[in-house]
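Incident review: delayed structure delivery

Summary: a single-chain prediction request sat in the queue longer than the usual turnaround. Root cause was a stuck worker, restarted by the on-call engineer. No data loss occurred. The affected request and its eventual output are reproduced below so the record is complete for anyone auditing the incident later.

Affected input:
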Amino acid sequence: MNGAPRAAASIVELVPGVSALAAGLLWLHATRTIVAADLHFAYEDVIGGALPVWSTPEITAKLLAAAQRMKAEEIVLLGDVIHGSRMSDGAACTVRESLDALRAVARLTLVAGNHEGRSRGASILGDTVEFAHRDGWLLLHGDRHPELLERREARCIIGHLHPSLGLGGGMSAPAFLASPRLVVVPAMTPYSRGLDVFSNACMNALAPFGIESRRELHVVVAAGDLLYPFGGLSQIRTAMRERRI
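Output delivered after worker restart:
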């Protein structure tokens, strides 16, 4: 995909063999793998709120629909699968049921993130991995930087940053960031706006993964049932500044 804006679509190829799917999911063509980041299952319970854990079944339903539509062979959850490991028995049961539902349609791989903590959420999630290799990419949460990255040899797919595109007026939308060496997957949780892709904080977070300039990145926004390829990050930033958005 080049830096020019394109029409909205339900599937947008980010780099060869890797596509964004509506609902903020990633599709790895060769292994027929869906990648989802930052689900934060049981968020409502973990923070001590009185609300039911409505986001967990809602996110699960989106994953199931995508896996069935794409005939996925694997689903990789890219860290922060749960919001925290201390939750009620009822919430833990809901999480386990959601994971079992996903396992019923495809092989399920759980990558641990920072919200899984030192226990890696073992009592709720069972076995997790720290990273995975698929289709020539290193899949990891993004809060840690393995020694492999210091040699700048790996092409990485990460979550963790909850990237979003600021639209002005306090509005924002989840966004993919992509370059030939790095793809950042937006968060599935509805609760965190995340890191503005225009911010210096975002660029600083990407630096360990070999990203040195905004010119390397392009942006695809995930909104509802469609994806909106906005084009190159540096061009969007310039255009929005000129329009004083």
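Verification: The chain has a mean pLDDT of 90.
Action items: add queue-age alerting; document worker restart procedure.
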